[in-house]
Here is the input.
Amino acid sequence: MSRIGKKAIAIPSGVKIEVQQRLVKVGGPKGNLTWNFPSGVKIEVLDKDKSIKVTRDGDTRQLRALHGTTRALVNNMVKGVSEGYSTKMEIYGTGYSCKVAGAKFELTVGFAHAVGLQIPTGVKVEIEIPATKGNETPAKFAVTGIDRQVVGQFCRTIKDVRPPEPYQGKGIRYAGEQIRRKAGKAFAGAGGAGS
Here is the structure.
């Protein structure tokens, strides 16, 4: 048995789960999510335990992998509709800033123009500090939503606009992320001929 797959998922209060053939619907205080799960895997809602059990039809390698993955994805859905997901991010670099304009997230990160990214449906960008102050105080914002996959993908898209560079650490990074730094080139010729 898959160690992750056989763990039951507790259903928090206020969360409703419905399984129809291969479609699972999860609703909660934060919103609703649906997912078509793969064949060969079964999702059962146990009313007496207030939990969800995921089982598989066979023991092939693919079904064993799907068992754990299905359980993890359903667990993410339950957590998403009850608590939601939030990822904090920071922008380093003098003059760099960010703002939300309608359904777009705009980044000013050293290019000749601001970069506008379409905010996915169900995702919110909350700005804590809109602009950097020197190289020490970064701009800060958080990406929140109920779908872990969508939140994670959008954060990656934001980071790809200006990944942190290794010399001064300028760029967009996750809060608390350590950047491997490189030493800059030493100036040659100081105190050389002709001085």
Q: What stands out?
A: The chain has a mean pLDDT of 89. The first helix runs from residue 61 to 82. Residues 93 and 172 are 9 Å apart (CA to CA). Residues 85-174 form a domain with the Outer Surface Protein A; domain 3 fold (CATH 3.90.930.12).
